[in-house]
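Lab notebook page, bench 4
Experiment: in silico fold of construct C2
Operator: M.H.
Input chain length: 284 residues
Purpose: comparison with the prior construct
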Amino acid sequence: MQKGADILSVFTRLSIAAGEIEKVAEFAHDEHLGYITSCPTNLGTALRASVHIKLPLLGKDKAAFNAIADKYYVQIRGIHGEHTETDDGIFDISNKRRLGRSEKDLVQDMYDGVKAMISAEKELEAKMGVKPAAAAAPGGRVKAGPHLKSIADLSGMVDFPEGTKSSVARFMTEEVFNEYKGKTDKAGVPFELMVLSGCQNVDSGIGVYAGSHDSYYTFPKLFDAVVEDYHKHGVGDKHVSNMNYQELNCPPFSEAEAGMILSTRIRVGRNLAEYPLGPGITKE
C-alpha cells in the first residue's frame, strides 16, 4: 500500500514478497479452487486490488458508473469498506473476480476499469464546463475520521466536524499543528502519533496522548492548554503527592451504609522513568 497512483509499484512489491514467503511456507491450494480461503468469494487468488479515487460527477450517474464497473469486472464501494456509501465523491474501486484468472489479470481488470472511469469523468467535466480540481498540495487540509490510518495521513491541518468537543479539536489550532508537525519528543515519538487517535475518533473526550514525559515540555502549546482546561492547573502550578494513609479521615461506615456498597476500587497509574508512554511503546 502507498499513497498515489503507482499500481505497478505496489503490485511489484506484493509479487516479490509473496514469492519469497512461498519459498519457506506451504499454503493450502489445489488445481480446482486455487488458494483456499474460509470465505468462498476469495477462493482462487484471494486478491483484492483497489484504488480510492475522486469521481464526483460519474458517481452521480449510477447507470453509467455501474455499466463501466460491469464491463471491467470491478466493484464500487465507499472508502470505509464493504457496504459503505460515500458522500464526498471518493470511491473505492477494486477487482470483483478472484477465481479462474491470474493475479496479474485481476490487477489489470482494476487498472482498465479505473482508466475507463477517469475517461468518463473527464467527458462529464467537459460537457458540464467543470474545471478539474487541482491535486491536493502536500500539507493540504485533511478531514478527521476513521479513514485516517497512520500518521502519514496527517499531511496537513485536520478539519473536525462541527460540534466536535474533544480537547485535540479545540486546542490543536492550525498554528499549533504547523509548528509541531514532523517533530518528535526526546523519546523519538512523533507529534502526529500523539494526536492520531483523536483525529480518527471524533467522539473522543481528550484525543491527545503524550508519547513520553518529555512530550509535555516539547509540545507545550497543546499540552498546557489541555491540562489547564481539564485540571484547572496552570503552567506555574505545582503538584504535591501524598500517599500517607494515616492522614486519611474516613471512619468506618455504619452497617446499613456498608451494606449499600458492593465493592471498592482504588488505583494509581505509574510509568517507569526513562521509558516512553503508551503511544511511544514499541516491541523493542
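Observations: The chain has two domains: 7-128, 142-280. The first strand starts at residue 29 and ends at 30.
Next step: discuss at group meeting.
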